[in-house]
Each structure stands twice: as C-alpha cells, then as structure tokens.
Specification:
Its EC number is 1.3.8.5. By secondary structure, this protein is mostly helical. 54% of the residues lie in helices and 8% in strands. It has a three-stranded mixed beta sheet with strand order 1-4-5, covered by helices on one side. A two-stranded antiparallel sheet has the order 2-3.
Length: 391
C-alpha cells in the first residue's frame, strides 16, 4: 500500500512527509471496509478467492510500482509477465495436458479484473496472449498443440492476434489478407494493424482469407516470427496500449480490464478525498463528492455482477451468451470509463499530472469502448437479438 501511494503522490513534489504518512495511516485503516463494500470476492468459491487474491497481490507488488515507467518508456514487460506465467496466468483456460491452468471463463475474468488494478495495458496483452494460446489448444492439431502451447503457457514465447487490417476494423469479415496453398505451404499476402506486442512476440495468429467472401471464407494460420517474408512496420503513436479482436469471448476481457481499472480508481478517489483539504476541511466532507463516490461504487458493483453473469452464460454455452457478453462489454466499458474519468475530476489539477496513476487508468481504458467490436456494434448485436426474439 505504501509503495503504491508513493508512486501516485510523490511527496518530493506535492506532499510533505507528514502528509504522506497521514495518507498511509488513514487509507490503511479503511481499506478493509472499502474492499468489503465493493465485494470483489462476493459470490466466489474459496478456490476463486485464492487465485483472485494471488492476482491482486501480484498486481500490487509486481505491476503497479512499474505501471508509469512502462507507459512512459513503452516497455513490453517480458520478465514481469513471465513471473505471472509462473502463477498459471500464461494459459489460464488452456488444458493442463499442454501446460495450462484449465480454469473457466469466469475464473479468467476474475483474474484479469484483479491484474488490471496494477496495469491495464499489460493485463490487456496477457488476455490476448491467453486467447491465442487457447485458440491453438482448441483448434490446433496434436502437433501444433504440443509445439506451441507449453512455451506459451510459461511465456517463454509470446503470442499476438492478427485480425484488424488498415481497411477493416469492426467489419472483420471484409479482411483482404489471403493465404493460398502452394505445395505443402501456404503463401500469405496482406497487412495487419493494431497488433498488441507486434514485433516483440514470437507467434502470430493470423486471420486470412482462404475461401470466398464473408466470414465463412476466413481461416486462421499460425505464423512464427522468423518466417521468411514477415516484416514489421513502425509502432503507432497511441494514446495508450491498444489491441483489436473480434470474438464473442474477448468482449469479456476488455470489460474485465475496465472493471479492474475502475476498482483502482474508486480507491484512489476515496484516498484523495480523505486527505485533500479545501476551504479548511477535507473533500470527504463535501456532500456532492460523497454522492459522486457512492454512484461510482454502485456502478462498479453493478458492472461486476453483469460481467460475471455473462461469463457464466458463456461458460455454460447458454443461448443468451452472445447477447449478455455484448451487454457486458457495452455497459461495463462505458460505466467504468465514466468512473475513472470522475475519479480524475475529483483529483482536480493533480489528476492531470502523470505522478498520479488515475490519469493513466483513464487513458488505458478509453480504448475499450472501441476495440474488440465498438460499443456501437455491441448495441447492434443486442438490438438484433431482441428484435429476432420478438419476431
């Protein structure tokens, strides 16, 4: 706790030592109450609570202290992610026979939420790596599974997902990259964009066209980094870490990462209100800000409930799974961005300083309303489901 606060509120530039000590003591006394109120572990089994705690602890000690540096220097934190893999987070829902943890989609969502309290963009990449690993495990043949999955589970090798192209985003079925069989090899032609980890990773899951127009003509090819003809363009100058995917499952990792960021921001806002003084008293005595904090906490808990219901629906292959996943992605990413943005507002001018973690959470999760199918697309999916049911 003390390390995290020193990163966010460096007393050398903003606070006196006594102010920092007061912040630490006040926040430490109230953390238990806050965590109980926000109920991150509510409804989870004992086993789920254990790996949730493990993920929260890892986020606090291995990610949060370095989050700002990774962002500023655009570092791909290989060693930190390999430490996460030692806890089983490199193949969370990959089968144990190839090195995975064999957990459920709900378990996975719980882990991503907890990790994101330490660093959203790193967790977002870990979620993509896990999905690539799962795709090989689920759809690959025995040779492919045994070749790729064990090293992906340990994160000795890293994977990237390649769907989006310069001319196709949400309309993924219009992709133009082709794969043509020549002898015993496929020849790929095309380009991909917004690839998280691109250039730094070892295995690329490439969606390409092997048949006619539309989604049925698309296949998936595993391409290794040293494959002849594979080249990498310049890194885009982005507001924050970004990725684009378009499968129903990955609506939930985006929402889970947003949820973790919102959880962290509610804590940061609460801590700030308790110690920041204006007009002779702490901001925590301002009823308007009390009401805002109450709304933030309520929206956080409501978002978590919807997200976990969607994860259960997907896990159980229910008929409402796609609609619920779309609802979760829409609602959670919108509301959690609003929570983080309100937390920044509560910090006043300090919220706009990079010494304060709240601004990075705001930047990192804004993209979740765009990636993995924009929230406008989520509305289309939900509406079509409702209208088809009424018909």
């Amino acid at each position: 706790m003390f390390k995290r606060i020193l990163v966010i509120f460096p007393y050398s530039t903003v606070l006196s030592l006594s102010y920092t000590a007061r912040l630490y003591s006040v926040c430490a006394l109230r953390d238990t109450i806050l965590n109980s109120l926000l109920a991150a572990a509510h409804g989870l089994s004992d086993e789920q609570k254990e790996f949730q705690k493990m993920a929260f602890d890892f986020a606090a000690h291995e990610m949060s202290p370095h989050m700002a540096e990774w962002d500023e220097k655009e570092i791909f934190p290989v060693e930190t992610m390999r430490k996460a893999a030692q806890l089983g987070f490199g193949g969370i829902y990959v089968q144990p026979e190839v090195g995975g943890s064999g957990l459920s989609r709900l378990d996975t969502s719980v882990i991503f939420e907890a990790l994101s309290t330490g660093c959203v963009s790193t967790t977002a990449y870990i979620s993509i790596h896990n999905m690539c690993n799962w795709m090989i495990d689920t759809f690959g043949n025995t040779e492919q599974r045994e070749k790729f999955c064990p090293e992906l589970c340990t994160m000795d090798k890293f994977a990237s997902y390649c769907l989006t192209e310069p001319g196709s985003g949400s309309d993924a079925a219009s992709l133009l990259t082709t794969a043509k069989l020549e002898g015993d090899h496929y020849i790929l032609n095309g380009s991909k964009a917004f690839i998280s980890g691109g250039g730094d990773t070892d295995v690329y899951i490439v969606m390409c066209r092997t048949g006619g127009k539309g989604p049925k003509g698309i296949s998936c090819v595993v391409v290794e980094k040293d494959t002849p003809g594979l080249s990498f363009g310049k890194k885009e100058k982005k507001v924050a870490g970004v990725s684009y995917i378009n499968l129903h499952w990955v609506y939930l990792p985006a929402a889970s990462c947003s949820l973790g960021a919102a959880h962290a921001c509610v804590q940061l806002a609460r801590d700030h209100l308790l110690v920041r003084k204006q007009f002779g008293e702490t901001l925590s005595n301002n009823q308007f800000l009390q009401f805002k904090l109450a709304e933030m906490a309520t929206k956080l808990v409501a978002s978590r409930l919807l997200l976990r219901e969607a994860a259960l629906a997907l896990q159980e292959s229910r008929s409402d799974a796609v609609s619920l996943c779309s609802m979760a992605k829409l609602f959670v990413t919108d509301e959690c961005f609003n929570i983080c943005n309100q937390a920044l507002q509560m910090h006043g001018g300090y919220g706009y300083l990079k010494d304060y973690a709240v601004q990075q959470f705001v930047r990192d999760i804004r993209v979740h309303q765009i990636l993995e199918g924009t929230n406008e697309v989520m509305r289309m999916i939900i509406a079509r489901s409702l209208l088809s049911e009424s018909g």
